[in-house]
Amino acid sequence: MLRLAAGATVGLVAGRARAADPATMTFPFANGKREIVSAGTFPEKGAMILQRTRAPLLETPWETLTGHIFTPNDQFYVRWHFADFPNRVEVSPDKFRLRISGEVSRPLEISLIDLVRDFEPVEMAAVNQCSGNSRGFVMPRVPGAQWGHGAMGNAKWTGVRLRDLLTRAGLKPAATHVAFRSLEDKESPFPPPLHFEKVLELPHAEDGEVMIAYAMNGETLPLLNGFPLRLIVPGWYATYWVKMLTEIVVMDHPGTGFWMATAYKVPDRPNGAMQPGEANVLMVPISAMTPRSFFTTPSEGMEIPYGRPTLVQGFAFGGNRGLRGVKISIDQGKTWRPAELGEDHGTYSFRTWRFVLVPTSRGPCRLLVQATNTTGERQPLNVNWNPGGFMYNPVEHLTLSVV
Fold first, then answer.
1. Residue 82 near residue 188 (C-beta atoms within 8 A)
2. DSSP letter for each residue of 77-95
């Protein structure tokens, strides 16, 4: 990282030409057919599910999520807002600075070298999940990117505590909120031009967990995942994980920008749920993630033997809290049995689970999986609907054939 910061330019270059007959896959929902672009089509990226070319929306293949607790950087999902997103970043000391201003006693301009050399490094495993992950499964259908389950990934993030930077800048007594801005400001489609800005309350910003990352999974951040710096807000949806972070503004008010006041709003209810057509629902900015769990093996429709043990496996995470447990039901949620949890990589990380199933009857066997976090919050049995298709987290199901 220090060598890179000493004088490098990172940019996107033209990818390889696509095959004449591209590979495709089909999600199990309407209009679910997608192209799978080959490795190298997008710089620093392997094979990805193409949701949109510009601005790029690239989904992580399910096989990658099920095969790795820590999602490889080259297949970590990508989500940008503006078609004219930045495709070149100069990070030499005389070009790139992280600026801290506003209600501070000592405004700062910090180079990457200063950031790496002068502040204590920290590492945290945390899930980064798009607010609209799994939107394609929402019924009734809603507009927006029709993601499958692959608009998420889990990584080990390395960087510095935001709290340490704010302490260096010196907070004034009037400080109440912290805003984060990025190079994604390049051209906003919303007149008048608006900063891409997300805001955290000061106690949250200073909790010691929010961090500024310069590496993921032990490597420099890929440009499409936010190089050179990215805000990490563990347990919250990715809209707050500002990519290409360049400016931190400490404020004495909560801010009224588009990306907090209008975009990414959900009902102020558990799981962000409401009824289609319901009126006068109080909407608030999306924030904390909810628990989720998934099956990995066996695969849907697979035949398993009657009266003999079959190992069922998957992974889960607790959202904005640690994962307390995972349970399996084979009677449509009437009763639940605990699964065994795998290694704990930290509060905000994916965690594997396993369950031994011994079928007692032949024919279809439908399993449900439900995660619960350490506050007791659990996945709902039914789809939690809202007009943005946000915060989708109902229990997943798997149907096997017992023979």
1. yes
2. -EE-S-TT---EEE-STTT
HEC sequence for 307-347: CCCEEEEEEEECCCCCEEEEEEECCCCCCCEECEECCCCCC
Per-residue model confidence as pLDDT tens digits over 311-361: 999 999 999 999 999 999 999 999 999 999 999 999 999 999 999 999 999
DSSP line for 65-79? HHH-SS--GGGS-EE
Give me the residue label for tokens 């896959």. Answer: 25
Q: Which helix (H) or strand (E) holds 112?
A: helix 112-118
Separation of alpha carbons 18 and 25, rounded Å = 16
The two three-digit tokens of residue 275, written as one number: 């009824």
Tokens representing 292 are 């989720």
Helix, strand and coil percent figures for the chain, each rounded to 5: 15, 35, 50
Q: What is the pTM of this model?
A: 0.94
Tell me if residue 102 falls in helix, strand or coil.
Answer: strand
Task: Count how many residues are written for the chain.
Answer: 403
Q: Which two tokens stand for residue 353?
A: 């689970």
Helix (H) or strand (E) holding 167: helix 162-169
Nearest CA among 216, 240, 239, 238 for reference residue 227 = 216
